[in-house]
Amino acid sequence: MPPLPAPLTRLRLRLRPPPFAAIFIAALFAAFVYLTLRNMGLYPTIFGDEWTYSNFARLTPYREALIPSYLYYTVYGGTSACGDAFLECSRGVNALFYLGAAPWIYLLARRWCGQWTAAAVALLAVLRPSNTYTAYFMPEAMYFWGFWLFSWCVLALHGLPRRAGLVLSAAVLGMLALIKVHALFLLPAWCAFLLYQAWRARGTARPWLLAGLGDVALALLVSAAVRYGLGYLYAGRGGLLLLGQMYAGQAQQRPALAQLIAPALLNLRGHLLALLLLLPLPLAAWLLPAASARQRAALPRDSAALAVYTLLMMAALLATTVLFTALVAGGGNGIENMTRLHMRYYDFALPLLLLCAAAQLAPGAQQADGRTRLLVALPLAALLAYGYAILPDAYRPSRIDSPELFGANASPEQFKMLTLLALGVLGAWVLHARRGVQLFLFGYAPLLALLGGAALTTALREAQRPDDYVKAGVYARQYLRPDELQQLTVYGGDMAMLFKTRFMLDNPQVQLVQLAPGQTIDTGRFSEDSWGLVVGAFALPQRLERHSGARGFSLVRLPPAGIVIRFRESALPPGVRGIDGMSTPEDWGRWSDGDRVTLRFAAPLPAALTLKLDAAAFGPNASDDITVTVGDTRRLVRFGAARAPLALRFDTDGGATAITFDIPHPVSPHALGLGPDQRQIGLALYRLQVEPVDDNPD
């Protein structure tokens, strides 16, 4: 073949396919853009959970956090730098962590398959519908990344000395427990895996059981040292509570074992059927060694380790999930609650099954004969048909608890199609093992991710429309000052939705009160400076007045008795014509400026009144009397240097239209060496109330 002309040669060089690394990075970047655009503009949807983690990460000291996820709080506490956009910032960090797990998964997959197949497995792992967890202010995304870092340390650090890899894995697990407490449930499975590794390495001079127990002891020691050491540094003695106060309280609920068996089995059935629909071929390939001694003997050492690690992890996580559901959600008293499938407690580990499937494509991997594969596939196919018959009606998949099953069950037609395709994948695997694996990895699994992702995206985008609870929280946060939010109580008919309002208010001091239909609001909770936010159509008691709001919610408070001036507010209340001798409003109130303060009123003040003051004196004025005059009545008052309330009785002729304060020693902070402020101040006024006195109430 003659050589190409020079221009065509240069064109060919320019059109050379980009290197693999560039394509893989570009795919991850495209996934990041997709997650960012999908999650943008959503309001919080998981109510109590999102509020809990946002509160502990951003608003509460570590020592007061009820859940010891201190590493998570450290990272996500930084989202406060984004101001009101902290939720959007947290979603960006979520996407980075979630997609950051792909390199660890890729590196593990490369142990058994080529780079393109490994890249496909890694991308499938992060493009599953469970990436919807990146939309929530919760630790799932960071935990997903941490779990795969841990798994890589356990399965792939063969280049390091054995004990060095073990210590590193244990340290990662200890830190993982400070991202999410549930990492503690990985420990029994990992300890069992260490014993398995010791058994596989038997034949040395040292007995394998003794070596394995030594590894387990070292793993426990290092994990505990990291977990407790960091916990103590973060929160003192409170950081040493392994489960934290909240989960420790839940652990005290211990129904009798007999009460747990039936609901736990019901819940376990749902999980197993769901896993079979989502991962039919990985489960078949995973079970194959159990059905064939020849297959067990033919497994490469690394593939056997992966299969055992997957078995132990999935068994431990499934047992934990089912027990938790039976213990907390069911407790033997509410069987209907056991139809809730909390797949998010092990969803992060499901890519292990993808790796088990990919391991079947390893060069030189020996496949069992078709008859053995048929023996494995037939019962799985029967269970698939059984799951198709009962899963949609017997269980309640939700986009939060079980996003992948929710996406697969988006419509009856889609659920039927996926079930038939899962049966077809099993059939193809029976006929030709490698072709069946390829059909699953490059056909069924991407289709499941695409269809499920579309259904989840549609459901997520519904959170772009704010409901009354969101609108109420946004309005009150913008209207009220931070110190007023401290005294706010929110009323509504749905406690879960009230958590959403508190999330928008972004203040842990806000109180929540659930009202039954027709229930009256208790005005005993109100003071003259407190506020109420009522969401829904609830009648207001006569003592409460609607201050402001919109359709669906009202901001309410007690009407003040008489005239109230809050000096931090620039606007004057009705009935006050002006203020002389005072500086501009500040966050706390106002300073006097000069030797006299005059408050002028539009109408004569009551003849008998109580003047309620919240004030403090400055400098030498704290040791001298200040003259307070209403009409022709004067009172000498000594204010302390600290803020304190004071009530003064005045009896006048009923014609007074002003209140004056004569300051004996106005002085500037500059003159006292307290800074550059040149104002002649003497009295700090926070609040003043003119309250009429009725001496003849009858």
Automatic annotation (TrEMBL):
Residue span, DUF7024 domain: 565-692
Spans through the membrane: 20-37, 142-160, 166-196, 208-230, 272-292, 304-331, 343-362, 374-395, 415-432, 439-460
Keywords from the named record: Membrane, Transmembrane, Transmembrane helix
A Pfam cross-reference name: DUF7024
Superkingdom in the source lineage: Bacteria
Protein name per the record: DUF7024 domain-containing protein
Species of provenance: Duganella lactea
